[in-house]
Amino acid sequence: MSSTLITNIGELTTNVGSPGDRFGTLADAAVLIEDGLISWVGPSVDAPTADETVDAGGRAVIPGFVDSHSHIVFGGDRAAEFEARMAGQKYAAGGIRSTVAATRAATDAELRTRVRGFLDEMLAQGTTTVEIKSGYGLDVETEARLVRLAAEVTEEVTYLGAHVVPAEYADRGDAYVDLVIGEMLDACAPHAKWIDVFCETGAFSVTQSRRVLEAGIARGLKPRVHASQLGPGEGVQLAIELGAASIDHGTYLTDDDVTALAASDTVLTLLPGVEFSTRQPYPDARRLIDAGVTVAIACDTNPGSSFTSSMPFCIAVAVRDMGMTPAEAVWAATAGGAAALQRSDIGVIAPGARADLVLLDAPTRVHLAYRPGVPLVKTVWKDGVATR
User: Fold this and answer.
1) 248, 225 in Cβ contact below 8 A?
2) Are 355 and 38 within 8 A, CB to CB?
3) Residue 336, number of CB atoms within 10 A of its CB
4) Is 5 exposed, middle or buried (0-12, 13-18, 19+ CB in 10 A)?
């Protein structure tokens, strides 16, 4: 069994909180990696010996980013839609249907190549864990293909047959829900861990969303919910009632929503790239954090509303426009994402955790927001293996 010691770390963010520092920040630190796991963390002066030593040169090290919300199995492109939106056209959920047509037409090989390309892109920017949703098939055959392809590359697969109502079921939303919780669920459940629904005007009502989530739960899938992206609604309360791991978007939250979230174990996942791309108002993360809500950050990589795979970019936007401190944003993009996936083995740098780490070409994590758009990721370790 080989070992790697990363030493001379100027600032180490462990996310193992202590009194006075919930982010677990250590100076002049070292981390020992053995057999894909972290086996020791502490001051460089006390570091044990190892087969290989990496000198961080006083740079910062953080946990690998945990992107708990992505839609990267799809075909086609929606650049024209983005251009129209920048010219003043309002974003609407119905644009998803254009991606559905392209995805249905794509082969498995084409989709597989594209997914792996996105994963390489994400890893180069420090993301070591990715959740992947279906939702661009909206028929039994294609949705099953999408979750199967996602399961080839991640254990965090979400069945999102209830993304929008497809064109062939126009004005027959309840009939489409019957399909989602029947034959489609039967085909997709063996490949998925999670079930999700877009509970929003233009997508699925609260009643329809409840049917979808309860059917998934009955099949052993864990719930997550898209809610309150385009306006306030009842999706947040439904998600909390059913014990959803996360509510994603949360752009429009009532005071009652915030209070309920703070009293629950449900994570609120913010998606800064969406507001950047759609020009909707940014959610107030400061309000959420101060109220005691557990907040995560994810990219929501998708061709319509957030075609970015960069967690550093999302961190910079969260700090600039959503009221988060740099430390809070990094926590949300690492430990927060892990919480949204109900995982304790990622998002932290501690003995026993997976050795997923990012060495920044910067002295502190603050530079992720301080130097937006600059490629600061110098080296990434995924399961203890340096990938760049």
Assistant:
1) yes
2) yes
3) 27
4) buried
How much is the pLDDT for 92? Answer: 60
Question: Are 219 and 189 contacting, i.e. CB atoms less than 8 angstroms apart?
Answer: yes
Distance from C-alpha of 38 to C-alpha of 383, rounded to nearest angstrom: 9
CA-based torsion, 143, 145, 149, 154: positive or negative:
positive
Helix and strand counts by DSSP (H, E) for the chain: 15, 18
**What kind and span of H or E run contains 161?**
strand 157-162
Whether residue 179 contacts residue 163, with contact meaning beta carbons closer than 8 Å, is answered with no
- Alpha-carbon span 202 to 255, nearest angstrom: 24
Task: Answer whether 137's CB lies under 8 Å from 103's CB.
Answer: yes
User: For the chain, what is the radius of gyration of the CA atoms?
Assistant: 21
Question: Which residues are within 8 A (CB) of 7 and not within 5 positions of it... i.e. 6 or more apart?
Answer: 30, 44, 47, 53, 54, 55, 56
What does the DSSP 8-state code read for residue 65?
Answer: E
Close Cβ partners of 366 (under 8 Å, ≥ 6 residues apart): 326, 327
Per residue in 76-114, pLDDT (tens digit) is: 998 888 888 888 887 665 578 789 999 999 999 999 999
Mean pLDDT value across residues 271-299: 97
pLDDT tens-digit series, residues 119-177: 999 999 999 999 999 999 999 999 999 999 999 999 999 999 999 999 999 999 999 99
Q: Which residues of 182-200 are buried (b: 16+ CB within 10 A; e: fewer)?
A: eebbebbbebbbbbbbbbb
The tokens for 231 are: 């306006």
Q: Which two tokens stand for residue 73?
A: 């199995």
Question: Rounded to the nearest 5°, which phi and psi values hold at 325?
Answer: -80, 160
Spacing of C-alpha 3 from chain mean position? 30
- At 179, list the tokens: 């399909």
Give the pTM.
0.97
Structure tokens at 146: 């999408």
